[in-house]
Amino acid sequence: MNTASRPPASPLKVCIVVPCYNEEGVLDHTTTVLLGELNAMAGAGLCTADSFLCLVDDGSRDRTWADIERLAQGEARILGLKLSANFGHQNALIAGLFSQRGRADVLVTIDADLQDDVNVISEMVRLHHQGKRIVYGVREDRNVDPLGKRIAARVFYAMMKRMNDRAIKGHADFRSADAGVIADLERFNEANIYLRGVFPLIGYESALVRYVRKDRHAGESKYSYRKLMSLAWQGITSFTTTPLKLVLYLGALMFVISGCIGLWIVWGLATGTAVQGWASTVMVIMLFSSMNMVSLGIIGEYIGKIYKEVKQRPRYIIDRTTQQPHG
């Protein structure tokens, strides 16, 4: 009998954490699809009948929380968490994972737009039955994304892989992990957390499931190019000091260039062929000034991260919740 089709010994209780930011009008479809997936997994013996959804409202400005409350009132398997402000996508995920890890065996994270394929969640849970601790969803095809976003993603993952060999190309925040892994995740107290990098850092036995990214059901993506660039920069500066090393290499390169220019000037004076005028001088000054500003900016970014870590502010604050899911 094929291992992939063999029924599990005992079902696992699954919690699907869904961060929500201004998702008014989308959540009805999202919860219907995800509850249907839980029903299918329960029918296959993969998860318990009381497996549930945790919808985290990350300080939305529309009627997202009202929608969550309405859905939770009509379905016992839906739990809503409302954060007191907009703490950001990563912290909304953390709020859901940390608050629910004691109520589930496996916790899955997926965005509310359902562009990640919910059909592979059952494969994730099946892999947990086989002993995997973390399962990463990996995008094989991003054709639904704009060309600019696809190019930016390709460049980013190439850079991250070069700087951190544990980085998983094509993986965003669609993953599953058991409650023990989430307990270990709580030990990472950093304010500037980047979950896509932290989970591979935790280790344990893991697996990949591959899928094709889908079109968004409704609404618009909340990740503008500015936010994507900010997230990419967060990932780079949180897991590598390579930019600081580049500052050192850049300084060494500038020293060599300045030495060559100095020799060229001495040669010109000795041979009587020195270039008259100020253009070359101005160019050199501008080059060095710009390099210094870039270098100071990179160093300042790391100092800013240290500043945030030292303050030890909470990563999220839960304002209120709906009733707890049954079971």
Task: Indicate the percent of residues in helices.
Answer: 40-55%
Tell me the fraction of residues in β-strands, as a range. 15-25%
Oligomeric state = single chain
According to DSSP, the number of beta strands is 8
What name does CATH use for the topology of the largest domain?
Spore Coat Polysaccharide Biosynthesis Protein SpsA, Chain A
| Named CATH architecture of the largest domain | Alpha-Beta Complex
Order of helices and strands: EHEHEHEHEHEHHEHHHE
Return the domain count. Answer: 2
Task: Say which CATH homologous superfamily of the largest domain is assigned.
Answer: Spore Coat Polysaccharide Biosynthesis Protein SpsA, Chain A
Strand line-up of the largest beta sheet: 7-5-6-4-1-2-3-8
| Shape annotation | elongated
Question: Could you characterize the architecture of this molecule?
Answer:
The chain has 327 residues and is of the alpha/beta class. It folds into two domains: 3-224, Spore Coat Polysaccharide Biosynthesis Protein SpsA, Chain A, CATH 3.90.550; 242-311. Helix content is 49%, strand content 15%. An eight-stranded mixed beta sheet has the order 7-5-6-4-1-2-3-8, with helices on both faces. Helix 2 links the parallel strand 2 and strand 3. Helix 5 (147-163) runs parallel beside helix 8 and helix 9 runs antiparallel to helix 10. It is elongated, with a radius of gyration of 25 Å. The two termini are 33 Å apart. The model is unreliable at 1-6 (pLDDT under 50).
